[in-house]
């Protein structure tokens, strides 16, 4: 029998581990299963290079609950430890066996999948256990040993009669952690953290139906047998080559990741790089709504198939946080609990790689099947537009596949759009004016007027469109965007010719005064315009600059400070060549007010601005004119 003190620099290391080192007590199981996986993968590597003269076989990791004895067992069939190795790796905290193994076999073990880095994972057991035992037998021809520690710096190490290779960790669960003796709790943790571990994990047994015999009688009853309940998938899709996977394989893996998600993903992007860092993974574009409610925490981060976190901020670019899937990299720096990212150069490189890979995939999808890409546009546009605003590298590549749809369901890239509009929508100053609507129904009358002129109108309805067009205008000389209801169409795209007014300057002044006595000045600015006599007599527009700044402010950043709190301001454009303008001028004061009020309400109605009490009064007044 041996006894002694664990070699630590402070006597109260265990309370520190329990309280501070690990951010979440439940990860003890992840750490211990990861250690068991390491031990098994190390053995696999040593047998493959002929250093371990044993049969590798088909090892698994087993988790067992002894509720009555208040014990939890983690059993592996890995390489085990000798007495000297227990002294070295268990009694000297923070001496990482995984690090030493990788250093010793760094050339041949590069792809062995060994997980551990810190030598502290084992001690996470003391977060939930009052006593921990290790019973282990090395693959080497040496006796098994039994190590015991009650959470103090004292331990015992004695021989044991274990004959099978591997290690068994026995946790004597503390009174404040008895939840970890419940089967549902352990299953939950194994499913969360170890669902894709590379070694099969057994947790109890399950019933499995035997095949029905060919000569079975009609009253044959299905027979069942108990089989090992393997709770993980050791070979998830992201560990395979894209060429070995079908479209159905990708969909099945999506369902495996998100069993409660019923919509099929639109498409996937398989990540696979081994230089200058290792990274694998699969990202899925789900169907998205056209708002900016970013559903973060949908992408899972793994390290050598060990679940780390669903907070991938910093690794995955922010605009891709709306995607789903898996990212796995052994080169992502973590602290000792594997729970938080640590900033270093690799993280930025990985983020840049993912941005580039997503852009390349989108370009490929666009080139291979543009029609299918266009059909999916509404489901992916928010992600892509956000990417253009937030990632300069993505913005550069996006010109090849980002689309600008019209209200007539035509789709253009920016280069195609410029070419299609240049002959008809270039104004007298040489600027190409891109008309757009944000709501096809609400702005129908304005769209219709533009179409009568032969103009095309884009449908840009994402919540960040104001930010996007601001950037496009800044980066494209002589290009400007104007919402179709920002002014009368002849003012939005000004040509050389000007329409002459039928009214004299004095008549115009009288007309304006008559209208301003009825129209509320705090919300409307009256503008007299010489328009075609067939154009609408009253048109309500919202100045492009003011509206855009308010929208940018409302959607976060980019807008003028405080603009989101400004009252809504509109222009009331009055067509001086309309018959109504003449009628107002030639009517008595009372009739003038009635005409202006009715015309204003009609204009407001066309913009969806007539509501509540005003709408009720308008309807009542309109019916009275029919009597």
Describe this structure in words.
This protein is an alpha+beta fold. The protein is elongated, with a radius of gyration of 35 Å. Residues 94-98, 112-119, 335-340 and 558-564 have low confidence and may be disordered. Helix 17 (579-585) runs antiparallel to helix 18. The chain is built from 19 helices and 22 strands. The strands form five sheets. The chain has a nine-stranded mixed β-sheet with strand order 1-6-5-4-7-3-2-8-9, with helices on one face. It has a five-stranded mixed β-sheet with strand order 10-11-14-12-13, sandwiched between helices. The protein has a three-stranded parallel β-sheet with strand order 18-17-19. It folds into four domains: 2-204, Histidine kinase-like ATPase, C-terminal domain (Heat Shock Protein 90), CATH 3.30.565; 237-375, Ribosomal Protein S5, domain 2, CATH 3.30.230.80; 403-498, Rossmann fold, CATH 3.40.50.11260; 503-627, Four Helix Bundle (Hemerythrin (Met), subunit A) (Up-down Bundle). Helix 12 (444-452) links the parallel strand 17 (432-437) and strand 18 (457-459).
């Amino acid at each position: 029998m041996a006894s002694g003190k664990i070699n630590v620099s402070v006597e109260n290391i265990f309370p520190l581990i329990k309280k501070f080192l690990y951010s979440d007590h439940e990860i003890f199981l992840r750490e211990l299963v990861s250690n068991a996986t390491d031990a098994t993968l190390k053995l696999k590597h040593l047998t493959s290079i002929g250093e371990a003269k044993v049969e590798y076989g088909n090892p698994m990791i087993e988790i067992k609950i002894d509720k009555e004895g208040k014990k939890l067992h983690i059993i592996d069939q890995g390489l085990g430890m000798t007495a000297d190795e227990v002294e070295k790796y268990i009694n000297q905290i923070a001496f990482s066996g995984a690090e030493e193994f990788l250093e010793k076999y760094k050339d041949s073990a590069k792809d062995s999948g060994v997980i551990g880095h810190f030598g502290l994972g084992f001690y996470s057991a003391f977060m939930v256990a009052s006593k921990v035992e290790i019973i282990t037998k090395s693959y080497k021809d040496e006796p098994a040993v039994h190590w015991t520690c009650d959470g103090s710096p004292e331990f015992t190490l004695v021989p044991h009669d274990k004959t099978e290779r591997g290690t068994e960790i026995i946790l004597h669960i503390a009174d404040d952690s008895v939840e970890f003796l419940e089967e549902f709790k352990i299953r939950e943790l194994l499913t969360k953290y170890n669902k894709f571990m590379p070694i099969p994990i057994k947790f109890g047994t399950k019933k499995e139906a035997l095949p029905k015999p060919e000569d079975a009688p009609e009253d044959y009853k299905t027979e069942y047998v108990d089989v090992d309940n393997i709770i993980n998938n050791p070979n998830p899709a992201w560990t395979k080559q894209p060429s070995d996977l079908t479209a159905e394989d990708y969909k099945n893996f999506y369902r495996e990741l998100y069993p409660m998600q019923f919509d099929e993903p639109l498409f996937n992007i398989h990540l696979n790089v081994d230089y200058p860092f290792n990274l694998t993974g699969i990202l899925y574009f789900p169907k998205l709504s056209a708002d900016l409610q970013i559903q973060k925490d949908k992408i899972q981060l793994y390290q050598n198939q060990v679940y780390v976190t669903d907070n991938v901020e910093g690794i995955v670019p922010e605009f891709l946080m709306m995607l789903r899937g898996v990212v796995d990299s052994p080169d992502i720096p973590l602290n000792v609990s594997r729970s938080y990212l640590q900033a270093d150069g690799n993280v930025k490189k990985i983020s840049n790689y993912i941005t580039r890979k997503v852009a390349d995939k989108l370009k490929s999808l666009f080139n291979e099947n543009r029609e299918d890409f266009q059909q999916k546009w509404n489901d992916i546009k928010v992600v892509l537009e956000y990417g253009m605003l937030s990632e300069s590298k993505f913005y550069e590549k996006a010109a090849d596949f980002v689309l600008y749809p019209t209200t007539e369901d035509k789709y253009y890239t920016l280069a195609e759009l410029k070419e299609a509009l240049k002959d008809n929508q270039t104004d007298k100053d040489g600027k190409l004016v891109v008309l757009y609507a944000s709501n096809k129904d609400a702005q129908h009358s304005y769209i219709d007027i533009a179409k009568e002129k032969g103009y095309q109108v884009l449908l840009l309805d994402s919540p960040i469109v104001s930010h996007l067009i601001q950037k496009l205008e800044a980066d494209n000389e002589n290009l400007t965007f104007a919402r179709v209801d920002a002014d009368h169409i002849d003012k939005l795209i000004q040509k050389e010719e000007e329409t002459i007014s039928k009214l004299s300057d004095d008549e115009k002044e009288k007309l304006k005064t008559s209208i301003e006595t009825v129209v509320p000045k705090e919300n409307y600015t009256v503008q007299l315009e010489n328009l075609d006599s067939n154009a609408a007599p009253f048109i309500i527009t919202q100045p492009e600059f003011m509206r855009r700044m308010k929208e940018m402010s409302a959607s976060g950043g980019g807008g003028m400070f405080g603009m989101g709190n400004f009252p809504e301001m509109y222009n009331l454009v009055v067509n001086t060549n309309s018959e109504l303008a003449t009628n107002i001028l030639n009517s008595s004061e009372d009739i003038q007010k009635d005409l202006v009020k009715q015309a204003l309400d009609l204009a407001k109605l066309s913009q969806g601005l007539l509501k509540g009490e005003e709408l009720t009064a308008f309807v009542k007044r309109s019916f009275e004119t029919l009597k």
